[in-house]
Design goal:
GO terms for molecular function: metal ion binding; methyltransferase activity. This is Rhamnose C4'-methyltransferase. Belongs to the methyltransferase TylF/MycF family. Keywords: Antibiotic biosynthesis, Magnesium, Metal-binding, Methyltransferase, S-adenosyl-L-methionine, Transferase. Pathway: Antibiotic biosynthesis. By secondary structure, the chain is an alpha/beta fold. The protein has one domain: Rossmann fold, CATH 3.40.50. Helix content is about 40%, strand content about 15%. It has ten helices and seven strands. Strands 3-2-1-4-5-7-6 form a seven-stranded mixed beta sheet, sandwiched between helices. Strand 4, helix 9 and strand 5 form a beta-alpha-beta unit.
Amino acid sequence: MDPTAQLYLDLMKKVLANTIYEDAPVPASWAPAHEYDELNRRLGVDWPSVAHTMIGIRRLENVEHCVKTALADGVPGDFIETGVWRGGTCIFMRAVLKAHGVTDRRVWVADSFEGMPAADASTHAGDRELASDRYNDFMATDLPTVRRNFERYDLLDDQVQFLPGWFRDTLPTAPVDRLAVLRLDSDLYESTMDTLVHLYPKLSPGGFVIVDDYHIPVCAEAVHDWRAKFGVTDPIQDIDGLGVFWRREA
C-alpha cells in the first residue's frame, strides 16, 4: 500500500478516537475516570465526550485488518455496521475504501438514530435487565449529526448509505446484496440476533463478522445461540478482551 495512503489511515484512527486532542470521557460505572487516559482510549473502554468513535484504536485496527483483507482477497460485497453511535467506525471504513481507490463498494450505516429501544414484557430477559435505554441521553445520535460527521471528513457520497430504524424493521428488507464485512455494535440480545439472522446469509465466503459487544453477556449469549442454531463453527478470535471476530469459511 502507498505509504501516504497508510499515513492517512493512521491519522484517521487517531482523529476518530481523538487521541490527538484527548477529550475527557463521560464517566460511566465501568470507567469512572473524569480525565483522558491513553490506555482506556486505546482499548475503547471509555465514553468520549467529543470523539466520533468509542471503539478505541485496537478495534479500529481490527476493522482496518478485516476490510483490507477482504479487498486484497477479492471477497465480494459491501461493508456494514449495525449500531454506529456518532458514525466513526463507518467513517473509517469509507476512508479505507478511499485510500485504496475503491469505487464499487458501499458502506452501510445502520442505526435507529434514536438510541436503544425501551424494554417491555416481550423483551428478552437479559435485555430488560440491561436496560440500555437509560443511557439514551448520551447514546442517541440523530441521523443529521452522523451525516455531518461524514461531511467533516469529506467522506459523504453515494458510497455511503444509511438504514435508519430499529433493526427488526429495517434489516429484513435492507437493500444489501452482498457483504464482505459485517460489524455488529448492537449491545443487546435481540438486536444482535436480528442482525445475524438477516445479514449473515448475505456475507460472502471469506468475509468477516466483527462483534464489538461480545463482552456483554447478553450479546455473547445471542452470538452462541445463533451459531448453535445455524451450525456456524468458524473459530471466534479475540480482538482486545472486549470484541471478537471470525472469518466465514463457507
